[in-house]
Specification:
The protein is α/β, with parallel strands linked by helices. It has twelve helices and 19 strands. Helix 3 packs antiparallel against helix 4, helix 3 crosses helix 8 and helix 3 crosses helix 11. The chain binds zinc ion.
Length: about 475
């Protein structure tokens, strides 16, 4: 028996490549990457969500998250530094930035009255960098303008009123919502604007700046519909509904943030950058807990492969993020293009996994047992694209049908400085208080992180120039 086992072992060793090659140095079977464990990565998402909740519970009940310049920012920077060090990355460091005065709403309240009834609109969340109210607050007549189309607005007098509109732009947290409704309403002299996203529940949504000159809030669907009923009921009774609001904004000076750097040296000075933004609103489980988890998972995976087998140096960046609009890390990188002189690939880890959420029955969001399809961007050669899409295929990464023309998000500024790629999810709960670890599937985290690992391993054998975008030919250049 002993001899037969020994013989079998020799045969197996002859058939299989040496174990080091199975570690992912070259394209291996999908099982090669099974040491990247989704449940393990999800504990990182939970750590980061806990950082946000700690900040919330420490005196910031309304505007909270891993917000740039705050204790939650410093907290997750320390968390990442510790991770990078314990993984054994070299040159682990913090690159500090002084922030311009930061928009920090101190407190707000919104309530409504109609026909003797009163209600608090507890889901109201001011749009980022929006204007506050005067110290005494505002007391305004409320008006419902439906979907705020031109026809909706044509016959309405909005001057000095609190204007409520409704939007089906489920993925918008932007000024472009409902094709510029905020601007149309503002142009008609509104004194306050309320955006209700028709996503079931009563979510708090954090919008990016919407460009309004008056206090502007997002509302959850339940609050929005209750308000709609109050406005309509009061209108029929002859006494309009009214809204009281107060919003105290401060610009906080002298705050700091940082890019967190870590390096895993290869055998050459060619690099692959792995980027994940550190900031996020509310628990930010997907935006960007998953991205950070994916980045840390990649660092863990490649740290276990001997340096002699990794041609390219991996550089890991926990960036400051872009939610505040100034995007310190991205701006610095854009001014220091030289860091990408020998970069084979920039991989952006951003919102890498969420469960598919389906709005149903008008009042319920159901969580599917499958992953939300991801938006995907690849900026590089056909060879790079083949490697990347092959990796997505291998691990069953769920994708949108159409690829995105641009990266946007955290690497939007630097996407053209080197070959670059990303997957990104922005589902129903994006930028809301429902974006919790509960909607993060370990399976999706594993699939995307394994796919990224395989891409890094496979491109290691491809010369830098063969990964870059095709350059415009001289004839097409002279035609311009
Ligand atoms: Zn993000």
């Amino acid at each position: 028996m002993r001899t037969r086992f020994a013989f079998a072992a020799v045969v197996i060793m002859m058939i299989l490549p040496p174990p080091t090659l199975l570690q992912g140095q070259h394209a291996g079977p999908a099982t090669t990457y099974s040491s990247i464990d989704g449940a393990h990565l999800k504990t990182y998402v939970e750590d980061l969500a806990a950082t946000s909740r700690r900040y919330r519970d420490n005196g910031h009940p309304q505007f909270w998250g891993r917000i740039i310049g705050t204790e939650a920012d410093a907290d997750n920077a320390r968390w990442l530094l510790t991770k990078f060090k314990s993984i054994g990355l070299s040159d682990v460091r913090e690159q500090p930035f002084d922030l311009p005065p930061q928009w920090m709403p101190q407190s707000w309240s919104v309530s409504a009255t109609a026909g003797g009834a009163a209600t608090t609109l507890s889901s109201a969340q001011p749009t980022y960098r929006g204007v506050g109210t005067p110290a005494g607050g505002l007391d305004l007549e409320a008006v419902d303008v439906g979907f705020a189309t031109d026809a909706d607005l044509a016959a309405q007098d909005l001057k000095g009123k609190a204007v409520f509109f409704y939007s089906t732009d489920f993925q918008s947290r932007h000024s472009t919502i409902s094709k510029g409704a905020v601007k149309r309403i503002g142009d008609k002299g509104a004194a306050a604007i309320f955006i209700t996203l028709l996503i079931p529940g009563n979510l708090r949504f954090q919008f990016y700046p919407v460009g309004a000159q008056v206090p502007t809030f997002a509302l959850g669907l339940e609050d929005g519909m209750r308000m709609r009923d109050m406005i309509a009921g009061a209108h029929h009774s002859g006494t309009p509904a009214r809204v009281k609001l107060s919003l105290d904004i401060q610009l906080t000076p002298n705050l700091k943030t940082a890019t967190i750097w870590g390096t895993l040296p290869g055998t050459t000075d060619e690099t692959v950058f792995v980027v994940a933004h550190r900031d996020g609103w509310f628990e930010g489980a997907n935006d960007n807990g998953t991205g950070i988890a994916t980045m840390v998972g990649l660092a863990e995976y490649f740290a276990k492969i001997p340096q002699a087998q990794r041609k390219r140096t991996l550089v890991f960046l926990g960036t400051t993020g872009h939610h505040d609009g100034t995007a310190e890390s991205g701006a610095w990188l854009l001014e220091h293009k030289e860091v990408f002189a020998k970069t084979a690939l920039i991989i952006n880890c951003e919102h890498t996994a969420a469960s598919l959420l389906i709005a149903s029955n008008g009042s319920v969001v159901r969580k599917a047992a499958v992953e939300s399809p991801l938006g995907w961007y690849i900026g590089g050669s056909a060879a790079l694209e083949k490697i990347v899409t092959g990796a997505y295929d291998t691990f069953g990464v769920s994708l949108m049908e159409q690829r995105s023309a641009n990266a946007a998000g955290e690497i939007g500024r630097i996407q053209n400085l080197a070959p670059s790629m990303q997957l990104i999810d922005t589902g129903l709960y994006w930028h809301s208080d429902h974006e919790t670890p509960d909607i993060i599937p370990a399976s999706g985290l594993a699939a995307v992180t394994r796919a990224y690992a395989r891409v890094i391993a496979e491109i290691d054998a491809v010369p830098l120039k063969d990964l870059q975008r095709p350059q415009p030919t001289t004839s097409s250049a002279s035609n311009r």
